[in-house]
Amino acid sequence: MIIGRGLLASAMNTKHHRESDHIIFAAGVSNSQETRSSEFDREEKMLTDFIGCQKTFVYFSTCSVDDPELLASPYVAHKKRMEQLVKNSIKHIIFRLPQVVGRSKNTHTLTNYFFNQISSDQSFQVWINAKRSLIDVDDVASICGHLLVNPALENQTINIAPPSSMRVLDIVKIFEDVLGKKAKISLVNSGGDYIIESTLSSIAANELKIKFDQNYYYRVIQKYYGRT
User: Fold this and answer.
1) In which band, very low, low, confident or very high, does the pLDDT at 193 lie, cut at 50, 70 and 90?
2) Residue 8: how many CB atoms within 10 A of its CB?
3) Cα dihedral 29, 160, 47, 57 in deg (nearest 10)
4) Would you tell me how many other CB atoms lie within 10 Å of the CB of residue 28?
5) pLDDT per position as a tens digit, 113-124
6) For position 15, what pLDDT does the model report?
7) How far is the C-alpha of 177 from the C-alpha of 180, rounded, in Å?
8) In a 3-state reduction of DSSP, which class is residue 27?
9) Cα–Cα distance between 149 and 93 in angstroms, integer?
10) What is the domain range of residue 141?
11) CATH code at 175?
């Protein structure tokens, strides 16, 4: 059973997942800049409506819960609270995700923001020291499906991400190359990095022939934003 209709829910919407012994909760707040309590309350109500079922409950959280720069973020605080609700259920798996890339009209995603700003010749700031991790939504669905068949992972919290992140400035440079257009940016001496422990997802990716190599970020951005 799949809950949700967005980018992640669509990628997970296969016959296998629809008929599995899991409730896959791919709904709720998708904007990491969200501050409205009404949106957080909406996700919490949806979550509690399903969390008491007998099937294993699968929840998607964010790797940003480990980012020291975002500890005060309302979105991160909300995700931490939802994680705790899920952990109180009998059977669950929590998947934490970085920046998920796919075909979406959500203007709040990092990659859609870069694409829109560069395409429309709009200027924006880039934090010199900031790094981010990107992952293809199709790879998320594949890795999740691979991990969900392992009963030993029940009641675990697992990061699904490439083994290394990339400087935001270098991500912007990839967009410039893919779009054939120079970004209008101003550099800010700010930002930082944090380590995402992703051993299990890296092992799964290797078994699925997903290459988290040095060109992974370029291939993902080219796939969804390249000129046709």
Assistant:
1) confident
2) 25
3) 160
4) 22
5) 999 999 999 999
6) 57
7) 5
8) coil
9) 11
10) 2-225
11) 3.40.50.720
